[in-house]
Amino acid sequence: MKKHNKKKRGFKLGFAAIVIPVAFLVAVVVFLFIMGNPANFQGNNPANSALPGNYYGIIYKGGFIVPILMTLLLIVFTFIVERIIAISKGTGNGDVTDFVQEVKELLNNNDIEGAKEACDEQKGSVANVVRAVLVKYQQLEKDTTLVKDQKLSALQQEVEEATSLELPALEQNLVILATITSLGTLMGLLGTVIGMIRAFGALANAGAPDSVALAQGISEALVNTAFGIGTAAIALVFYSVFTTRIDKLTYSIDEAGFSLVQSYAANHA
Asked: Is 80 exceeded by the pLDDT of residue 90?
C-alpha cells in the first residue's frame, strides 16, 4: 500500500515538472507572436506605442516580466483544475457528513459489513480510511493474543496510518499555489520598479522629456502591477478554498476514526 502511494506521489511530482516548463513556453509564444504582433502597434512596429484600445499591445509593453507573470497565471489555472478534480474525487460520491453519520449509526448497531458496503458506495478519502480501519476492526475481533487496550491502540494506529496515506494526495501541489501567492506579487512589484526606473530615466533627459519612453515606462509599471496582483489574488482565493475543503475532510476522517475506536471499546468488554 505504501509503495503504491510513493508511485502516486511520483506521478504528481512529474505532472508538476511538466506543467511549469510547458506553461512558460506557451507564455513566451503568446507574448512574442500574439501580443507582440506588429499589427498591435502604431506604424506596425512593436517599438512604437500600442494602438489605442489594443490590450495585446498594451500588455506587451509590460516588458520581459509579462511572460513570467503569464507563466505563473497559467500554472495557477492548471493546478486549480487539477486540485478541483483531485479533491472532488477525494470527497467521494455523496455528502461526507451524511456518510460519517451513516457509518456511526451502523457501528452503533455493530453492523460492520453494512459499514463496509457504505464505504464502497461512498468512495473517496474518508471512505478509504474508514474501510481500512473496518478491515483492521474485524481482524482484531478474531485476534485472541492481544488484550483490549492493545487492540484499541492497534486500531488507533491503523486510523493514523490510513489517514497519512490519504492526506498527501489531497494536499499535493497546494504548496505551488501558496508559493505563487507571494511570488506573483513580488514579480509584479519587480516589473513596477523596472517600469518606474525607465519612466524616470525618460524624465531625466536633457531638454524635453522623451514622452514615448515615459509612457512606455509607466505602462510597464502598471501592467506588471495589475498582472502580479491579479495572479496572486486568484492563487490565494483558491488556496483558501482548497485548504478549507481538505480541513473538512480531515475532520470527517478524525470523527469517523474516533467513532470506530469508541465502537470497538463499547462492544468488546
From this structure: yes
Q: Name residues whose C-beta falls within 8 Å of residue 19's C-beta, 6 or more positions apart in sequence.
A: 75, 78, 79
Contact 42, 200 (CB under 8 A): no
What is the DSSP secondary structure assignment for residue 41, as one 8-state letter? B
3-state DSSP assignment of residue 46: coil
Strand, helix or coil for residue 123: coil
pTM of the model: 0.84
Q: What is the DSSP string of 191-228?
A: HHHHHHHHHHHHHTSSSS--HHHHHHHHHHHHHHHHHH
Cell 525618460 identifies what position? 202
Position of cell 493546478? Answer: 79
Report the sign of the C-alpha dihedral through residues 92, 94, 96, 99, in that order.
negative
Coil vs helix vs strand at 62: coil
Instruction: State the Cα–Cα distance between residues 22 and 74, nearest whole angstrom.
Output: 9
Residue 40 DSSP class: G
- Mean pLDDT computed over every residue of the chain: 86
The β-bridge partners of 259 are none
Three cell numbers, residue 168: 498527501
Where residue 203 falls among pLDDT bands split at 50, 70, 90? Answer: confident
Closest CA to 166 of 253, 88, 238: 253
Instruction: Give the pLDDT score at 100.
Output: 86
Other CB atoms within 10 A of residue 86 CB: 19
- For residue 18, which of 68, 67, 80, 78 has the smallest C-alpha distance? 78
